[in-house]
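Ticket 4471: requesting a sanity check on a complex prediction with pantoate. Repro inputs:
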Amino acid sequence: MKCRFKAVLFVAFLLSAVLFAGTASAEAKFVLKLGHAVPVENAYHHGAVRFKELVEERTKGDVQIDIFPNNQLGTGERDILEGLQLGTIDMYVGSTGPVGGFEKRFLIFDFPFLFKDKAHVYGVLDGEIGRHILGLLEPKGIRGLAWMENGFRNLTNSKRPVNELKDIAELKIRTQENKVHMAMWRLLGADPTPMAWSEVFTALQQGTIDGQENPVPVIYTSKLFEVQKHLALTRHVFSPAMIAIAQPVFASLPEEYREVLAAAAQEAALYQREVCDKMEQEYVETLKKNGMEVTTPDIEPLREASGKVYEDFRGELGDAAELLDKIVNSKP
Ligand code: PAF
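Returned structure tokens:
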């Protein structure tokens, strides 16, 4: 009897040891909050989910990534990035649009009609220039891990189809909080109004602005077709995106996890670019089906009219100005 009791106790001890070990390994050692500004249908979210899966699998759950989409952690991308700098948010997936506000050399990507096509973009982002620019954020408390993408930006509005330069005149266009973008729209004759992304849909709906500019995947996944009739495929700026982490958070992780995060970000970025590119190609038709009128204006007059941006803002790039020339000269 005594013997049987001991055996039962032993089995109970083994069971609780196994259960305890299970709980311990199921509990993450590091939980990272990742924020982005767009709905879960957008390619950013697909990229963030792939990143989460890779990291959690490769660290056996020791590092957990919690994703907060659709501006849950801020009013827009500038706000989320500030959260990284303040230590309230750990990770960011989003465009580089607001970054020029605190690291001027990032404005290099905001010059109009800079990139010819995606091959040109990837050649730059995946080469020396892309690596250099991504590294510039470290002194600002942010570590860029990899280049994702938002896509080529296009103009939408509720007033009229845009077939030529004169059709842009006096349109009140929401822009990102980015002085190069604003200067470009002024040169094109529009009235640029910078605004946080979370406010844009309502502003379009209420008519306080006439239009906005964003890549096709954003226009579709944010349902702008409900409040915008006209889409002009202007492809005026290529909008890179990045997956980034607060530098102190990154530095606090053990080396093996830092390596996992860096590799997972790179893999997730390549996947995200594919998803985004597919959306860019497919969603023009989808937007037409949802009632948008799509025009393809001749971009030469737009390029000419906005060319002065290069003169006016080249100086802002400081030691990155020569990289701008390299990008221009590397056009395939
Ligand atoms: O226009 C913007 O603010 C950005 O392009 C967006 C929609 C937040 C995606 O990066």
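Notes from triage: The chain has two domains: 2-149+239-287, 154-236+292-329. Leaving this open until the requester confirms.
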